[in-house]
Write a structure and sequence with these properties.
By secondary structure, this protein is α+β, with helices and mostly antiparallel strands. Helix content is about 35%, strand content about 20%. It contains two helices and seven strands; from the N terminus they run ββαβαββββ. It has a five-stranded antiparallel beta sheet. Strands 1-2 form a two-stranded antiparallel sheet. The longest helix is centred in the middle third of the chain and has 38 residues. Bound molecules: zinc ion. The site of zinc ion has 8 residues, from loops.
Length: about 120
């Protein structure tokens, strides 16, 4: 069998079979672990966005900024695509409800104005 370079650590080795691309089990395992870590990353990224969304809405809420326009939402860097679209409670009929877990935003159909509400609190318009 012709010598080749290990795909993990570039050590030149003689493979036992023609599909072998790593020189040893340790390199095989290291490469596999790296692939698995890369697979997990999109989920991790998603969670980080969800967490930062929560933090930003939380900041606005604590600042008493309960009404945001689209510019403010963008300034706070809130990612509206990562929210659940829910049917709003009857008091918000005709509006849209974007759920972010602890908070939800009530917005108009054009996504121009947003009101922040916290779940589990009484809300009035
Ligand atoms: Zn190797």
């Amino acid at each position: 069998m012709e010598k080749r370079e290990c795909r993990w650590d570039q050590v030149v080795f003689t493979p036992d079979h023609k599909n072998q691309i790593y020189c040893c089990d340790a390199c095989y395992d290291a490469a596999k672990a790296k692939r698995q870590k890369q697979k997990r990353d999109p989920v991790k990224n998603l969670i980080l966005i969800l967490m930062s969304n929560h933090e930003r809405i939380d900041n606005a809420y604590k600042d008493g900024k309960l009404e945001l326009d689209l510019k403010a939402v963008e300034a706070y860097d809130i990612d509206l695509s990562l929210s659940r679209r829910l049917q709003p409670p009857s008091e918000f009929a005709g509006k849209r409800m974007l759920d972010f877990g602890m908070y939800f935003l009530i917005t108009d159909n054009n996504f121009q104005t947003f009101k922040i509400f916290k779940h589990g609190t009484e809300h009035t318009i």
